[in-house]
Design brief:
By secondary structure, the protein is an all-beta fold. The chain has a domain of 108 residues: Neuraminidase (6 Propeller). 1% of the residues lie in helices and 48% in strands. The chain contains one helix and 29 strands. The strands form seven sheets. The protein has a five-stranded antiparallel beta sheet with strand order 1-2-29-28-27, with no helix packed on it. It starts with 16 loop residues before the first strand and ends with a strand.
């Protein structure tokens, strides 16, 4: 998914400023998070990691072992990179763009042994080796057919990459290296973006035509989910929680729940119900709760996964949400990438 970039150039040297606060306490800049900002009644310990040149248009996030990886897409004249946050110390390190061939990294996936990064800016995918996070190789050119790759997912057997600009999905057998290009009207791809895996199916969000494509991974048979019962409107992210899928509808200001076993819509939750959805984008879950980032009003909506009922609206200046897009859960904390603020916020789940 393309997002606007700032025109500022990367500072030659910079350090991370870590601002720690709890709801109601003063921040370094003098602002205070109001008591009760977490409207479910919990006071969420929080922190903000920031620093010019550390995060630059941060978007996708993924928890890998003890770290949260963040795709910093960069800006005009800046290729972008991947940040590595140690969740126990909140220290940030950077995997440099040149050594790893990152240009506008947009999607991150892991198969346990490797981390895969889709680079929308140079039509490549970077493979990074396991715990060491050392560069391994870059996939590019024929026969991969990458064209603004963004969405990426793996089940450890195959890797799938959504190509936004040519309406295809590239499938790579991780054992043989064989490549299959999924394309054609039967798939219904239109600016395909985020990808999720649930059960025996691959699920691809299509923001261009407001559909979701389900692909049976055993038979390859596609099914296009569409219609009013799903409420899709610019579906932006799709994640699996238990036996269900959740889809954010960015222009529809709503959230769709799908039964992954049947493909049927379970419910569509919209903003007028009090959920405060405003350009909802990223999601993270601990299996019990679901957190949704609202890039339009700088809040995070918390829901009960079992029922879809509202659990809280997380907001206030202490969180420093700004164009919040990505989300991740590390077992204790929720992490949110602030694309407009060039920062990452974390708070207790």
């Amino acid at each position: 998914m393309k997002i606007s970039k700032t025109s500022a150039l990367l500072a030659a040297a910079a350090s991370v400023a870590v601002v720690l606060a709890t709801a109601g306490s003063a921040l370094a800049g003098g602002a205070a998070a109001p008591a009760g900002a977490h409207v479910s009644g919990q006071v969420a310990p929080q922190g903000v990691l920031q620093g010019t040149g550390v995060f630059r248009t941060p978007t996708a996030m993924l928890t890998v072992g003890p770290n949260v990886l963040v795709a910093s897409q960069g800006a005009s004249g800046v290729n972008g990179w991947v940040n590595v946050i140690d969740t126990s110390t909140q220290q940030v390190s950077t995997l440099a763009s040149g050594a790893y061939h990152f240009v506008e990294p947009e999607g991150i996936a892991s198969d346990g042994a490797n981390v895969w990064v889709a680079n929308a800016g140079n039509n490549t995918v970077t493979r990074i080796k396991g715990p060491s996070l050392q560069y391994d190789t870059v996939l590019s050119g024929s026969p991969y057919n990458f064209s603004h790759p963004g969405g990426i997912a793996t089940n450890g057997v195959d890797l799938w990459v959504a190509n936004e600009d040519n309406d295809t999905v590239t499938q790579i057998d991780l054992h043989t290296g064989a490549v299959t290009i999924l394309s054609g009207s039967s798939y219904g791809f239109d600016a395909p973006g985020n990808i999720a895996i649930a059960g025996n199916s691959l699920w691809v969000a299509n923001p261009g035509n407001s559909t979701v494509t389900e692909i049976n991974m055993e038979t390859g048979t596609p099914t296009i989910l569409s219609g009013s019962s799903y409420g899709f409107s610019d579906p932006t992210q799709i994640i699996t929680v238990g036996s269900d899928l959740w889809v954010t509808n960015k222009t529809g200001n709503s959230l769709t729940e799908i039964n992954a076993l049947t493909g049927a819509a379970v419910q569509v939750i919209s903003s007028p119900s009090g959920y405060a959805f405003d350009a909802p984008w990223g999601m993270a879950s601990n299996g019990t709760n679901l957190w949704v980032t609202n890039s339009g009003n700088n809040t995070v909506t918390e829901l009960d996964v079992a029922t879809g009922t509202l659990a809280g609206i997380i907001a206030g200046p202490g969180y420093q949400f700004s164009g919040s897009i990505g989300a991740a859960f590390d077992g204790d904390n929720v992490w949110v990438s602030n694309s407009a603020g060039n920062s990452v916020t974390y708070f207790s789940a």
